[in-house]
Amino acid sequence: MTYMTIKTFKNAFFGLLAASMFSISAVSCGGDDDAPQIPGTDNNTQEDDEKTDAEFEATFSPDGFARGADISWVTELESKGYKFYSKKGREMELTKLLRNTCGVNAIRLRVWVNPENGWNGVEDVLEKARRARDLRMRLMVDFHFSDSWADPGQQHAPAAWIGKTPAEAATAVSQHVSDVLGKLKNEGIDVEWVQIGNETTPGMMHELGGEMKGNSAGEFPCYLNAGYDAVKSVFPQAKVIVHLDRGQDKAQYKWFFDLLNANGGKYDMIGMSLYPETESGSGSSWSVNLDYQAITNCLENIKELNQKYGKKIILSEIGFHYTNSAGAKSTLRTFLREFGSAEILDGVFYWEPEAPEQEGYKKGAFDNNRPTQALDPFLEATIKPAQ
Prior knowledge:
Elements: H1 3-13, H2 53-57, E1 66-70, H3 74-79, H4 94-102, E2 106-111, H5 122-134, E3 138-143, H6 166-186, E4 193-196, H7 220-234, E5 239-244, H8 250-262, E6 269-274, E7 277-280, E8 287-290, H9 292-309, E9 312-318, H10 325-339, E10 345-351, E11 366-367, E12 370-371, H11 376-380
Parallel strand pairs: 1-2, 1-10, 2-3, 3-4, 4-5, 5-6, 6-9, 9-10
Antiparallel strand pairs: 7-8, 11-12
């Protein structure tokens, strides 16, 4: 990409994007006091967090482009005493806050097999999924196939599965998926998307031979297909996702999906993570900035993958430093403007927007337990222009 192309793209990012597909001005779901007037609305009328449940339900629709959030951390944070507040300072349960005041219509929840303290285990997942069900929100289930975090730096099999043969491990995958999804279904909870593995660029369950490397797919396709079939046995219409990191890395995605397809892997949708920022300096000279090249490459990658493999894409994770809410807002608005019809990209999920920076993770979309402007484009998408 030439310098002028990058410069033009950068300038467009921080413009008002008047040609947005939604044809509306910005509205903050955070604490901005200078939120501009939305055409056709009265900023002095009730805000969503002041509406009665009946008033909100009369206008809420979960359909269309998925404006999602992974809030798997919420129950653990609640156990530590954290509370969450709307833009006007009203205390609200997080799931409802995100839906009613930030335009979120879908929730993503991770699943661990035998977590040490219970968080992200099946009972914890059920608790959070009930909240989404009761609010008529859509649900993505993200199976890690580990007792803790699974990502490109660590793809460890559950301790209880170590020593199993590949055939036995595939059966364990199938049983685990069927058990969790079956319990969700028994509670009247629908599941729209299921990830078989989390950021599985190097495969999963490495101790059991599931590594993807070079020209070898290892046992990963076997484990993937076991999970795929288990999903379809419980939720035939659910979309099975294979999820990789670094959505901007075109070569990585081509290598992975060419290898997976050559080895008979079954999936319905390609999932991506994108954390498009660069940090520099330290102390008082520290700064964080958008990585415009990464964003551009990801936008192109989405279109190219859809054309090459005939699969829809979903942005399973996106995140920005909580102090870079303007960058987050402009980036989300760009994705919605480009793909809001959901014909190529099914949706975007912000990863742990509620994350308190004092817990050590700083890429949330809240500040002082209240939403920043980062999620404004989700709310914008729920507002119809004046006729």
